[in-house]
Amino acid sequence: MRLLLCDDHAVVRAGLRALLASTEGIEVVGEAGSGEEALAMATRLRPDVVLMDLQLGEGMDGVTATRRLVRGDPPAPRVLVLTMFDTDADITRAIEAGATGYLLKAERPEELFAAIRNAASGRTALSAPVADRVLARMRSPRPGLSERERDILRQLARGLGNREIARALFISEATVKTHLGRIYGKLGVETRAGAVAVATERRLLP
Description:
This protein has a 6-stranded parallel sheet with strand order 2-1-3-4-5-6, with helices on both faces. 53% of the residues lie in helices and 13% in strands. The protein has helices spanning 10-21, 35-45, 62-70, 88-97, 109-120, 128-139, 147-157, 162-169, 173-187, 192-201, and strands spanning 2-6, 27-32, 49-52, 78-83, 101-104, 125-126. Keywords: DNA-binding, Phosphoprotein, Transcription, Transcription regulation.
């Protein structure tokens, strides 16, 4: 199978290429250092699987690149995320963008090889810690956002700070902070940017 690597660290790409060179049936056909480069190379090289990091420095991130890859002209490649991050928000965004699997960089080589083969066949591949988090969320789904929380999210998406949000909605800054804490908990994020990103992915914003 044909594999395209996408990671913004050249040393990581070199290590992966060397590791995969010892594996029969997997051919690394290219290396991309950015999301934009991955899209261009995938169009030209037609890989079966793209091994995608989520954090790609400046420019397009791995989630956006994943979404565009899987929605591109057929035959679209499968995208297998390989990252250091296992937060609920990262996992959710990647899967909703169309990733076939989600692996952590701490995995053993044998697990990586098996995940690549599974991804090429269209089978889901998840690291054990990631699978545990997904199952936990399914068993205990987070409650939906209230209308006031949606109002605050909309203001966040506009780039407003707490004081500006309070003025716009005629509430106190303390109330804004309380709502933000609830929003973060429901969306599984820890930052304002994360909240906006997840809300956008789930189409919670107009």
